[in-house]
UniProtKB/TrEMBL annotation:
Protein name (Swiss-Prot/TrEMBL): Phosphate transport system substrate-binding protein
Keyword terms of this UniProt record: Signal
Domain PBP as annotated: residue spans: 24-303
Signal sequence annotation: 1-20
Pfam families registered for this protein in UniProt: PBP_like_2
UniProt KW Signal keyword: yes
């Protein structure tokens, strides 16, 4: 049964190569990327530089779909009808890799492009909040203590906080930023206050995830879609609200919003780079090895990424946190030697 699948993948790749070189209907001569709204501005900068370096090159098509939704598109197959790159604000999950492999796209380059932080932000006219992971868990969890969340104000969560309504604008469930919020903030707050939660995590990780990271759906948490700029606008309109997005958007909008202190640490470049800020996370770009020969300029695009992710580069000026040099070197080697991902240690 493997031979038909292999032949199908070969024909798909051949079609991709033919179309990339102008053969047949549905020609695709430009690079396509889907995925994270957090990584989107960085890939867009690389796309702009890619075209500037070669005016004859077709402008890459970069779509902000969210990490989870992007993975579904990315893993649906190889060939001109499927994206070349996936921007991701978390690592690929083992289940997503299996989906890729089942559709002939199992040879992937996993490239860490830098670091980001899950930033809680408020208007400069806001109440100047300082929160803990426990505060956030108690405010946003669907069932803190195993009961429906009855907290209506931040003072209900913690008497030291202001008695203003809990209103948090954040990413949808398909977003890698939402996954990181769950893993880096909610789960840790849960483990700190819920008896038995750490033991549950060791015994049954999926049950722990459902217990600790399910977000309430009664209006306190507002799904703002994949448009992080919309969250900034909401904070300007409602100074008492909080927003959740990647650090780069906080950095870009410093004139209108401030970062919220979490566990005594402000979201700053140095705090995130040093892993002192509780919302620190790596950012990735995934590339299909099968497309490197088929899509014009794809290798050059990845090399351009590596040339621009350093501490003094344009991506950092846009809000990316540069990875430690050892990780940068490893990512450059993955691009140069086209080292494919080993799925053995992917998260579940």
């Amino acid at each position: 049964m493997r031979l038909p699948c292999l032949l199908a993948a070969m024909f798909a790749l051949a079609a991709c190569h033919d179309q990339a070189n102008g053969g047949g209907a549905g020609v695709r001569e430009q690079i396509t990327a889907v995925g994270s709204s957090t990584v989107y501005p960085f890939t867009t900068i690389i796309a702009e530089r890619f075209v500037a370096a070669d005016p004859d090159a077709k402008a890459p098509v970069i779509e902000s779909t969210g990490t989870g939704a992007g993975m579904k598109l990315f893993c649906a197959g190889i060939g001109a009808g499927h994206p070349d790159l996936e921007d991701a604000s978390r690592r690929m999950k083992a289940s997503e890799y299996r989906d890729c492999a089942a559709h002939g796209a199992g040879e992937l380059l996993e490239i860490q492009i830098g670091i980001d932080g899950i930033a809680f932000a408020e208007s400069k006219r806001g109440p100047h909040m300082a929160l803990t992971s426990v505060d956030i868990y108690r405010a946003l969890s669907a069932h803190p203590g195993g009961k429906p969340n009855a907290a209506r104000t931040w003072a209900d969560v913690n008497p030291a906080l202001p008695a203003i309504p809990i209103q948090v604008y954040g990413p949808p469930a398909t977003s890698g930023t939402r996954d990181a919020l769950a893993e880096l903030i909610l789960a840790k707050g849960c483990d700190a206050v819920e008896p038995g939660a750490p033991a549950l995590a060791a015994r049954d990780p999926e049950a722990h995830r459902l217990f600790c990271t399910r977000v309430r759906e009664d209006g306190a948490y507002i799904d703002a879609g994949e448009n992080d700029n919309l969250i900034v606008q909401k904070l300007q309109a409602n100074p008492d609200a909080l927003g959740v997005f990647g650090y780069s958007y906080l950095e870009e909008n410093r004139q209108t919003v401030d970062g919220v202190t979490i566990n005594g640490v402000k979201p700053t470049y140095d705090a995130i780079a040093a892993d002192r800020y509780p919302g620190s996370r790596p950012l990735y770009v995934y590339a299909k090895k099968a497309h490197l020969d088929a899509i014009p300029g794809l290798r050059a695009f990845l090399r351009l990424y590596a040339e621009n992710w350093g501490k003094d580069g344009p991506l950092v000026r846009r809000g990316l946190i540069a990875s430690p040099e050892a990780i940068q070197a490893r990512s450059r080697a993955i691009i140069a030697r086209e080292i494919t991902l080993d799925p053995a240690n992917l998260p579940s």
